Amino acid sequence: MQRIGIDVGGTNTDAVLVDQDKVVGAVKTPTTRDVTGGVRKALEDLIALVGPEAKNASSVTVGTTHFLNAVVERRRLNKVAAVRISLPASASLPPFVDWPEDVAAIANGGHYMVRGGHEYDGREIVPLDEEELARVGREIREAGITSVGISAVFSPLNAEFEERAREIIEIECPGVRITCSHSLGRLGLLERENATLLNAALLDLAEEATSAFQEALEQLGITAPLYIALNDGTVTNAEMTRKFPVYCFASGATNSMRGAAFLSKIENAIVCDVGGTTTDIGSLVNGFPREANSTVTVGGVRTLFRMPDLISIGIGGGTRVHDDPLDVGPDSVGFRLTEDARVFGGAQMTLTDAAVSKGLMEAGDASKIADLEAGYVDDILAIVHERIASNVDRIKTEATEVPLIAVGGGAPLIPTEIPGISRVHHVENYAVANAVGAAIAQISGEADQVFQGLSRDEALAEALKIAEEKAISSGAAADTLKTIEMEDLPIAYLPGHAIRARVRVIGDIAALSES
């Protein structure tokens, strides 16, 4: 039952070996420009620390910002053909209409509007124009586009037209990779379509990254199956990651929250994760991150799919300190911390320097910052403490005091007393909580659909069945599944007793359960 967890952050790459309920070994190495190279180095250091038995781990889980960074930094996105089934509706707002111009210039491989779609009550707007879809498929093939995103009006209610469009385009354009919006998003056409197009734009990178991770394991003689951490604190197999990379956008923050729950044995709390570049603040509910219920903007693109409810601020160990006037961040030296920070012989004043000067942490050579005045350092930390405290208050949803779990390599920067917090908990192995969360992660399945003509119990039962099937197809052991979220919402304006049912289940990785 030994499991390896790896988390690739903007500054550091962490790796841990977890055996049952304890951390056997943990390492932290600088993230490299070649992200997979950093993963390989972290694994090598972990094996050197705990011994060759690490190679016999039951599973390896990687949490990475690889896909999110590609969108934010506008790089390594492939061209996508957007097919929307909606005419005569929604013609005034074509696909990519609300994307930032620089992202659209990279990813927009053309858009095609086709007659079809469904009304909010499940009725057809008009029949699907299959001849037009065949023509679209041929045009996409001639343009050399290899990735397609298909969206249709109210497809989460009825996915028939999206699936038929997939069949037609695959016939006309052999080898094309297709993402259908009903597989990703919820009700809300533009946001669901945007998530679909982002996913389709990341498919080349997803294939490259997962293959590189697997190659790194093979080079080190690690035969355990590879899993990738997801936005909700669970994992999926490498094959699913190749199909749905957008589900990995916020895996770093959720790994930290799951790791915080594991290390502290507290399932309901605020988690403050201070990394090298940012501080992520979220809320644990029953051991899992609370999900955002509103739209989420990724690299300037509005989306609507499963993401944690987080506040991220530019506070981290590598955050730059500016003078005249005195200010902190939000920019960071990132993975160059061990070169640029003053305690490491560099010229840049960072929060790591302030923390070392105050005696909050040990790093580098403290004699290199002996000239720092105590009042100057206190003023820097006062800014940090105020920003953390104000954002902790923003993430809270209740007036009563709640516990806070401090994790991340920069956790010593968190104040010991915060208004509205009953106690700040510092845990063992706090610096690698993100990798711990990756190591212990389970597999999830979710259903979020509108059902008509069913009773409340029947709708929830059907949603539960769908969620369980998704979890099992992602690699969960069927006999370990348990329901962690179940809710229903009657939709008054839909005829036929319409109910929106949402069910989420989790289960152990099948390979671990069998061992």
Give a structural overview.
With 515 residues, this protein is α/β, with parallel strands linked by helices. The chain is 33% helix and 27% strand. It has 15 helices and 23 strands. The strands form six sheets. Strands 3-2-1-4-9-10 form a six-stranded mixed beta sheet, with helices on both faces. Strands 11, 12, 13, 16, 19 and 20 form a six-stranded mixed beta sheet that branches. The mean pLDDT is 87. InterPro entries: ATPase_NBD, Hydant_A_N, Hydantoinase_A, Oxoprolinase-like. Pfam families: Hydant_A_N, Hydantoinase_A.
What attributes characterize this protein structure?
15 helices, Rossmann fold, globular, 23 strands, alpha/beta, Alpha-Beta Plaits, six-stranded mixed β-sheet
